């Protein structure tokens, strides 16, 4: 099979779909890999590294798409790429279709095979290809939140860890999944007082078992959220519904209950965000302010640490890529229940019901 690695062209997306080590494994299995020139530069992997691993370097993104049976990316295709996608071409990447009707319609029109990293699901309900980026984003949420709490960038002027004689800052985390737990670890490590909320009591029990005493758990309800947002300095939105839009846990009206300079980091932005006022931002222009509340809603947070992120992503995607390349998507998905759940759009049909439900469309079964 021919596999293409195009350069990501989303704003400030410095990750790349595969490391040279991944290319080496594919070429060792007699597959041909095309890498767009400079695709890996942002992650610290250069054309020579890919060539030494057995890849062929192509100059343009158009050549990569035209030459490849399977495209391996990090982020969803953007408007400039829609016309490059071919019928029956496999696209393996993060899609987050439920948050973009335009992207969904474009991929339906393309008649490609769209396999989404974020909906590949193990028997225990875990999401193996989303987990590493959720880990990165959860940790970054505190790193970025701490920065934007600084007064020169309109935050409250709070140091999360406090100092002797001064109480630490307060962090509220919505969701005790991978993002929430990683955010709690980072915030706790800085010495902040952390409240983590979820509707799953088993998750909250797990948090209680593994976290220090200054991380407290609370059942998530509108009443409890309304109470906590009044006195917390940093709020992290980390709620995920697999393949579907995130629920809106904080409304625009609730912003008025927050203190001026409170910071919101909505990690769920890729799925529409769990804050009503969320809108996607970029690393180039990461924040906006509504009712004196600072919103950080960068839709590709791990793109700011591309070396770490690209390595972490290839670690988990490569085994699936090898299976797809060796056996084709139909045989691989039929024999691999986890990857089967990654199928989102197949030959012009939506095959993942949460995507159809997000737009009020009827789902069609896989032929």
Quick structural summary:
The chain contains 13 helices and 15 strands.
What does this structure look like?
GO terms for molecular function: alanine dehydrogenase activity. It catalyses: L-alanine + NAD(+) + H2O = pyruvate + NH4(+) + NADH + H(+). Keywords: NAD, Oxidoreductase. An eight-stranded mixed sheet has the order 3-2-1-4-5-6-14-15, sandwiched between helices. Strands 9-8-7-10-11-13-12 form a seven-stranded mixed sheet, sandwiched between helices. 49% of the residues are buried. With 367 residues, the chain is an alpha/beta fold. It has helices spanning 20-28, 47-52, 61-67, 79-82, 101-110, 131-148, 178-190, 201-210, 222-228, 306-327, 329-335, 337-340, 353-359, and strands at 2-5, 32-36, 56-58, 70-72, 90-93, 113-116, 170-174, 193-198, 215-219, 234-237, 263-266, 287-290, 293-296, 343-346, 349-350. It is globular, with a radius of gyration of 21 Å. Helix 6 packs parallel to helix 7 and helix 10 packs across helix 11 (329-335). 34% of the residues lie in helices and 17% in strands. The chain has two domains: 2-119 and 306-359, NAD(P)-binding Rossmann-like Domain (Rossmann fold, 3-Layer(aba) Sandwich), CATH 3.40.50.720; 131-299, NAD(P)-binding Rossmann-like Domain (Rossmann fold, 3-Layer(aba) Sandwich), CATH 3.40.50.720.
